[in-house]
Amino acid sequence: MKTSSVSVPGESLGSVLTHWARTEGLAWIYIFKAVLAALLTLWIAMRLDMPQPRTAMTTVFVVMQPQSGMVLAKSFYRFCGTMVGLVVMLVLISLFSQQPVLFITATSLWVGLCTAGAARNRNFRSYGFVLAGYTAALIGIPAAQHPDGAFLSALTRVSEVSLGILCAGAVSALVFPQHAGEQIRTTVRRRFSGFVDYVCRALSGRMDRPQIEATNAAFVADIVGFEAARSVAVFENPETRMKSGRLARLNSEFMSASTRFHALHQLMNRLRANGSTTTVAALEPYFHEVAPLLEKSGEPVLNAADAAQAATQLAGFKSALPKRIRATRMGLQADPDFALLEFDTASELLYRFVDDLLAYAQTYASLAVPTHERERWVARYVPKTNLLAASVSGIRTTIVMLALGAFWIATAWPSGGTMVLNAAAVCALASSSPRPTLMAFQMASGTLLAMIAGMIVVFGLYPRIDGFLLLSAALVPFLLFGTYLSTRRNLVGVGIGYCIFFCFLAGPDNLTHYDPTGFINDAIALVLSMLVASIAFAVLLPTDAPWLRRLLMSDLRREVVQACRARLPKLAMRFESRTRDLLSQINALAANRADLQREALQWLFAVLEAGHAVIDLRHELAAMTARAPWRVSIAATLDAVARLFDKPDAARFDTALASTSDAIATLQAVLDAERPPRAERHRLQRILSHLHFIRTALLDPQSPLEPFSAARQQGARHAA
């Protein structure tokens, strides 16, 4: 949350204060709101005479977020997870409360399963799985020692958690609220204008390869962040919920338009490199006409209302484009330097890019009204983590809980239950972090600070105060300190550990017990569980090891396999969202490795180009009912391309390239020898264009497949 607030010489005091209010000031608003919500929860819990007000107070710091929608979304999934964990734990207590070994084993397996679910999903849906596991441990481990009161204890915990959820949501929504919907509106405006600027600069040749890569990497981060913001904004107000389908559609259409434009831009670069000056010169005038269409009265489009005119201009350009392209084609057919297939491929990509851009502009324009027919959008961006990686997270958590549970049973340590249930929470929470080992270690550091602060509060201040006002005055400095740490980017784990476990250790109950031995035992148990979790993350298939990155890179390449073989309905949306989501995960693992991030981005480009062309090709094939012999060669091409991206090597590259060339030659022979109807001929020409684009993508010298192409050319020279 922290951002730079360094002033520039010559700036006025007003501008400096405005900048501070928009950056650091927002962080301090969040800090005071979190402390206010915690004290409000504590006061209500004490007034209702709840047994452990500290549980309700702890819940506030668990669910509190800067934006109202985030708090409401997190609270919703926490409540759902809590209820599921409650039901499961009551079942486990009823079955195994008399058998400690079986009970610990069953609880560990359940928490491991929930941790795998949390790692598999994303955003606050992941948090629901975390709570389903943690709540089971929180309720079950203490209640299993007194099964006769398990049901009452479970209901009490749920009541305390629900109170914390309600207070956090109320304070976040009513006191200086910050809405995710405002962030979405800003992102939509900035992204549309940024994409227009990118298109203009790239088509004019004013962007080099590193700039294009940086822009596309920013687009990926923007797409993932936009979907996360949309998923929480629906909890804020009815207007955002009414536009949720269009916002999801806008994100999808932006992905399609950016993919299509990148493919077009790369093809034009290849044509220039190959010396196809005639084709480039024939198409460049059309490119220069696109940018002015995205303006209103000579100015860039600034909002949804202005986008309506841009959409109208694009629609007119699109409707006239095929006739104009055919005229240009006929005028150049007599030129001996004119490569007909290259021209058809480039013009087909241009038309499809304009079509995607028109859909993007129309959906953006539809946001100007509350309801619109474009709201009916079925496809959704559904991010998922690799199933094997998620399973590893679940198995790791199960092993940690079983080991700590065995230690508890063997030693009969009074705080062993605290150690086991906290290990469940830490493993589940840290598993969703890009660097779980560091996260768990930071939480342990924060807990050590909480232990020191808690001893001062419990044994130094509590005996000397009376009344809620003095209690609040005693707690506020310590709560402010912890919440402040949680807003510092490099100390988030320390702040989270401090806030949660300060409340756990030093949060007051209606009947305060001064037990130094129990306090120190609980503190040691908390820190020990986090250190064990940190060691487990570092030793048991660590997430920052190369294996996970290789696994995700393999998943990214296999998206082309899915494009070649999966069912066509909604395939394009799944392909677009999965590739971006996988790149986001890969970049998170290589946060400080620019070389690894660049390699992943190059594979993303290769996957997008080949996968998108394959999906377009399959859609054209699906629209044709005739079972012509040339379909066999295209089927062989799809299979060869899928095999290449599944496990790239030189032999598979040669096979894919040869199959693609054979399919092009076969289809070209059909077009030359037969006279199919006009509609069928145009469809065959489009299929031929997609095949040609796949071939050029395979031979792209900037592709990660280029080493195989170079080896092939070198082998051909040696053979000669």
Automatic annotation (TrEMBL):
Transmembrane stretches, start-end: 27-45, 76-95, 101-119, 126-144, 150-176, 387-409, 443-462, 468-485, 490-507, 519-541
Q: Which UniProt keywords apply?
A: Cell membrane, Membrane, Transmembrane, Transmembrane helix, Transport
Query: What is its membrane topology?
Result: Multi-pass membrane protein
Q: Which residues form a coiled coil?
A: none
What molecular functions are annotated in GO for this chain?
transmembrane transporter activity
Where does the UniProt annotation locate this protein?
A: Cell membrane
Read off the InterPro entries from this record: PHBA_efflux_AaeB/fusaric-R
- Where does the UniProt entry say this protein principally localizes? membrane
Protein name stated in the entry: Fusaric acid resistance protein
Upper lineage ranks?
Bacteria, Pseudomonadati, Pseudomonadota, Betaproteobacteria, Burkholderiales
